[in-house]
From TrEMBL:
Family as reported in the entry's similarity comment: Belongs to the RLP family.
Keywords on record: Glycoprotein, Glycosidase, Hydrolase, Leucine-rich repeat, Membrane, Repeat, Signal, Transmembrane, Transmembrane helix
Name under which the protein is recorded: Polygalacturonase
Coiled coil: none
Membrane association type: Single-pass membrane protein
Keyword Cell wall biogenesis/degradation tagged: no
UniProt-annotated location(s): Membrane
């Protein structure tokens, strides 16, 4: 077959069309990645040995690009993984160094996951808040220090903010309440101090908020009860004081509430124990006082109800024996008195659930009434 001018023109057009689809990594994205890599050291797995060649979108471990324009979309580097590179070497990840601000040049990033490397130190680059497409920021399990960027609220699309298990300090930035897409907030196990923003309740998409194991002070904001998707709230092991806002007991999908190991005072709101959706409640190691509200019903279902180490007084309400299920009950180390109710949810409980009270009696304790 003889090539005509038309054939050549068609071939050129096809070549032009396909070349716009198979462009490789833009040199500026590649340079930003190499600069990001240059401040990190990963000695055992060799993941950065795959970061060679001009096309950062192909075979660079942990890097993925938008197929339409080859801009870098995701950096997903997890130090705990089932990937071949981990199973072959039979060890989990370890990485030292710091997070270079050069990653902020990757302005199309949607996921930045640099998690569980145990040794990465330094701060969270302040410029991270200028990544307009960022949806997932997951830096759990490193040695990061410094503060959360004060303008973190600029990340309008952020759905996951996970910086747990680091050494971050400073306060929770006031702007955090502007993260209107945020669903999962995990700041646990850091050294974050100061109060919980009073208007945290503005985070209306949030379903998990884990602020435990920090140095937070002040009271629990009542506005939290406005977050109607919130299923899991953990404020344990802080220095939180004040009382438990009554409204928290009316939250529709709250199923786990950990307020243990704080300085919370006042009485346990009846609404909290009446909330039949709440399955795990730990209020242990606080300064709670007054009587246990007599509000249990056949709808009551707790896998964990730990009220130990407080200053609760009076009798254990009889209605507690009406509960449908109570897996783990701990009322020890309070000032309770009187007869322990009999009935199904108490049958399997041990004496330790009731020990160190003022004058409880009846099984499973040895004291007869
Ligand atoms: C409740 O919290 C206390 C104090 O933080 C902890 O020791 C205890 O194990 C927790 N209870 C349960 C059942 O997890």
């Amino acid at each position: 077959m003889k090539f005509t001018g038309v054939h050549v023109a068609v071939a050129v057009l096809i070549a032009a069309a396909t070349s716009t689809v198979v462009t490789s990594c833009p040199p500026s994205d590649r340079a930003a990645l190499l600069s990001f890599k240059s401040t990190l050291t990963e000695p055992y797995l060799g993941i950065f040995n795959t970061w060679t060649g001009s096309d950062c979108c192909t075979n660079w471990y942990g890097v993925s690009c938008d197929p339409t324009d080859s801009r870098v979309n995701d950096i997903i580097l997890r130090g705990e993984s089932e990937d071949k590179i981990f199973t072959q070497t039979g060890r989990s990840g370890y990485m030292t160094g710091s997070l270079s601000p050069s990653l902020c040049q990757l302005d199309r990033l949607t996921s930045l996951i640099v998690a569980d490397w145990k040794g990465i130190s330094g701060g969270i680059p302040a410029c991270t808040t200028a990544l307009p497409h960022l949806r997932i920021l997951d830096l759990i399990g490193n040695q990061l220090t410094g503060k959360l960027p004060s303008d973190i609220g600029k990340l309008e699309k952020l759905t996951v903010l996970n910086v747990a298990d680091n050494k971050l300090s400073g306060e929770i930035p006031a702007s955090i309440v502007n993260l209107k897409s945020l669903m999962h907030l995990d700041l646990s196990n850091n050294k974050i101090s100061g109060g919980i923003p009073a208007d945290l309740g503005k985070l209306s998409m949030m379903s998990r908020a884990l602020l435990n194991r920090n140095q937070l002070t002040g009271a629990i904001p009542a506005s939290i009860s406005e977050i109607y998707r919130l299923a899991d709230l953990d404020l344990s092991t802080n220095m939180i004081s004040g009382t438990i806002p009554e409204q928290i007991g009316s939250m529709p999908v709250l199923s786990t509430l950990n307020l243990d190991s704080n300085r919370i005072s006042g009485e346990i709101p009846a609404s909290l124990l009446r909330n039949s959706g709440l399955n795990l409640l730990n209020l242990s190691r606080n300064l709670l006082e007054g009587h246990l509200p007599d509000v249990f019903t056949p709808m009551t279902y707790f896998s964990v109800l730990d009220l130990s180490n407080n200053r609760l007084k009076g009798a254990i309400p009889k209605s507690l024996s009406a509960a449908k299920y109570i897996g783990h009950l701990d009322l020890s180390n309070n000032r309770l008195c009187g007869k322990i109710p009999v009935g199904f949810p108490f049958d399997h409980l041990e004496a330790s659930s009731f020990s160190n009270n003022d004058c409880l009696c009846g099984l499973p304790l040895m004291q007869v009434c």
